[in-house]
Amino acid sequence: MGSQRFVLAAGFCNIQVLQEALKNMDIELIPFNSNNDAIAKQARARPNTVQAYVCNLAEHWFAIRRFHRYYFDLNSMYT
Protein backbone atom coordinates (compact mmCIF):
# COMPACT_ATOMS: atom_id res chain seq x y z
CA MET A 1 0.00 0.00 0.00
CA GLY A 2 3.00 2.32 0.32
CA SER A 3 2.20 5.66 1.94
CA GLN A 4 -1.49 5.55 1.04
CA ARG A 5 -3.97 6.29 3.77
CA PHE A 6 -6.76 3.80 4.21
CA VAL A 7 -9.54 2.78 6.52
CA LEU A 8 -11.09 -0.67 6.19
CA ALA A 9 -14.84 -1.24 6.51
CA ALA A 10 -14.18 -2.94 9.87
CA GLY A 11 -12.67 0.32 11.15
CA PHE A 12 -8.94 -0.46 10.93
CA CYS A 13 -6.82 2.43 9.70
CA ASN A 14 -3.14 2.57 8.86
CA ILE A 15 -0.53 4.63 10.66
CA GLN A 16 -0.79 7.56 8.24
CA VAL A 17 -4.46 8.03 9.19
CA LEU A 18 -3.52 8.03 12.88
CA GLN A 19 -0.70 10.50 12.26
CA GLU A 20 -3.07 12.93 10.54
CA ALA A 21 -5.75 12.59 13.22
CA LEU A 22 -3.24 13.18 16.03
CA LYS A 23 -1.63 16.09 14.18
CA ASN A 24 -4.98 17.90 14.50
CA MET A 25 -4.48 17.73 18.28
CA ASP A 26 -0.83 18.87 18.09
CA ILE A 27 0.46 15.35 18.82
CA GLU A 28 3.25 13.98 16.66
CA LEU A 29 3.24 10.24 15.97
CA ILE A 30 6.69 9.03 14.91
CA PRO A 31 7.25 5.47 13.66
CA PHE A 32 9.53 3.55 16.03
CA ASN A 33 11.64 2.23 13.14
CA SER A 34 12.18 5.66 11.57
CA ASN A 35 15.85 6.23 10.73
CA ASN A 36 15.38 9.94 10.06
CA ASP A 37 14.04 11.08 13.39
CA ALA A 38 16.03 11.76 16.57
CA ILE A 39 13.06 10.87 18.80
CA ALA A 40 12.75 7.42 17.19
CA LYS A 41 16.48 6.83 17.64
CA GLN A 42 16.19 7.89 21.30
CA ALA A 43 13.19 5.58 21.80
CA ARG A 44 15.15 2.61 20.48
CA ALA A 45 18.21 3.45 22.59
CA ARG A 46 16.32 4.34 25.79
CA PRO A 47 12.67 3.18 25.56
CA ASN A 48 11.82 4.42 29.07
CA THR A 49 12.39 8.06 28.05
CA VAL A 50 9.37 8.17 25.73
CA GLN A 51 6.05 9.40 27.14
CA ALA A 52 3.83 7.05 25.11
CA TYR A 53 3.76 4.38 22.45
CA VAL A 54 1.01 3.65 19.96
CA CYS A 55 1.08 -0.05 19.14
CA ASN A 56 -0.63 -2.30 16.63
CA LEU A 57 -1.44 -5.94 17.27
CA ALA A 58 -3.49 -7.90 14.73
CA GLU A 59 -5.00 -4.71 13.21
CA HIS A 60 -5.89 -3.28 16.63
CA TRP A 61 -4.33 0.00 17.76
CA PHE A 62 -3.71 0.71 21.44
CA ALA A 63 -1.53 2.98 23.53
CA ILE A 64 1.02 2.38 26.23
CA ARG A 65 1.38 5.61 28.22
CA ARG A 66 3.69 6.72 31.00
CA PHE A 67 2.19 8.42 34.03
CA HIS A 68 4.97 9.57 36.35
CA ARG A 69 7.34 6.56 36.61
CA TYR A 70 4.95 3.84 35.43
CA TYR A 71 3.65 2.75 32.04
CA PHE A 72 0.05 1.66 31.60
CA ASP A 73 -1.44 -0.47 28.83
CA LEU A 74 -4.46 1.51 27.59
CA ASN A 75 -5.76 -1.29 25.37
CA SER A 76 -9.55 -1.03 25.17
CA MET A 77 -9.79 -4.78 24.59
CA TYR A 78 -8.81 -5.47 28.21
CA THR A 79 -10.74 -4.73 31.40
Nearest-angstrom radius of gyration? 14 Å
Largest sheet: 3 strands, antiparallel
> What is the overall silhouette?
globular
Number of helical stretches of at least 4 residues = 2
Quaternary state of this entry equals: single chain
Read across the widest sheet, the strand sequence of neighbours is 1-2-3
Strand content: 15-25%
* Helix fraction by DSSP (H/I, runs of at least 4): 10-25%
Order of helices and strands: HHEEE
DSSP E strands, number: 3
| Span of the ends, CA to CA | 34 Å
Question: Can you walk me through this structure?
Answer:
By secondary structure, the protein is of the alpha+beta class. The model has no long low-confidence stretch (mean pLDDT 84). The chain has a 3-stranded antiparallel β-sheet with strand order 1-2-3, with no helix packed on it. A hairpin with a 2-residue loop joins β2 (61-67) and β3. The longest helix has 9 residues, at 15-23. The chain has helices at 15-23, 38-45, and strands at 52-56, 61-67, 70-73. The N and C termini lie far apart (34 Å).
